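Lab meeting prep.
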Amino acid sequence: QVQLVESGGVLVQPGGSLRLSCKASGFTFSDVQMKWARQSPGKGLEWVSTILGDRRTYYADSVAGRFTISRDNSKKTIYLQLDRLATSDTAVYYCLKGAGPLDSIPRGQGTQVTVSS
């Protein structure tokens, strides 16, 4: 079955950087569109970024120019590089598989990113 395991979330100061990873298993990874989304306290799930099988990438306006999504098909892993972090980036970050509404596609358990001084 599909498994998505996120890691890399930590406490970081404003302006800092970190990289999230998502290890996938249970499906043919290289062909599949993958996403990152996040959920802040009291808010709904927010789309952050998408990477297609051909490596085209898309970003939410709120993170464009600061976050970078990538994939390593040999490791069945996607990454999210987060730079110039702001307190508003504090959230649980989720990795999701495939196309469709965020609440209808498989996702991992999430990893907590906290941006605070």
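Slide two material, second protein:
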Amino acid sequence: VQLVQSGGGLVQAGGSLTLSCTASGFTFDDDAIGWFREAPGKSREGVACITASDGSKHYTDSMKGRFTISADKAKNTVYLQMNDLKQEDTAKYFCAAKYWGQGTQVTVST
């Protein structure tokens, strides 16, 4: 039972990346699934979340308009599409729903 993340990597400022988070051994059902990030020297912060049952979405203000969270219930997968990435978006990104994903590094270069 785990959340398996994929995606991430190195991208230039202004570029885009998509992160994936797939549940293994359980289904999202009515869960709220969230994306969080942790930058060096900073505490973990929320990025976005989605409710599997009705698809309602919420974003941290600084990510609104640039990041999009979505879910594919058939694939038991949640995505985070990140556009217009900035250097300050550099962090390790985690998904969470009952469990934490393993984290994936996103590095934005200038």
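Talking points for slide two:
The mean pLDDT is 95.
The chain is about 0% helix and 55% strand.
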